């Protein structure tokens, strides 16, 4: 086959793998390129969401929440030293209702899908029961029992 015959054969055959048969005229296809796509916000945001079960930031938030709860429970009866400081810091963090800080108790709970008020009440009730049953220590401060 000569070069001219190959060119003629190429022009006469239909390209199947690159054909986009939509039933639209060339003008309609060109016009559709400049029309906005209709997309729901959720569909748009799905392209940016990670596919991991827990994103690294959420893992960190969960670790912070777990540590605070562990300190809250473990050191509730501590009267001095490091234990008392850890309990006080955890209690202050849980009681704080200001959500301006990224790692505030409220923001951490909401990011992880927990209700912060529910967790606060549950923690206070559990610790009040432990203090009442054991008779040890003073337990939570008066304003924490709200």
Write a structural description.
With 146 residues, this protein is mainly alpha-helical. It has a domain of 90 residues. The chain is built from seven helices and no strands. The longest helix is centred in the middle third of the chain and has 19 residues. The N and C termini lie far apart (93 Å). The C terminus is likely disordered.
Query: Biggest β-sheet, characterized?
Result: none
Unreliable runs: 15-19, 137-146
Number of helices, where a helix is a run of at least 4 consecutive DSSP H or I residues: 7
The helix-strand sequence is: HHHHHHH
What structural class should be given to the helix and strand makeup?
A: mainly alpha
Give the number of DSSP strands: 0
* First-last Cα distance: 93 Å
Average pLDDT metric? 75
Percentage of residues assigned to helices:
55-70%
Computed over alpha carbons, the radius of gyration is 32 Å
The outline comes out as: rod-shaped
The portion of residues forming beta strands comes to under 5%
Assembly annotation: single chain
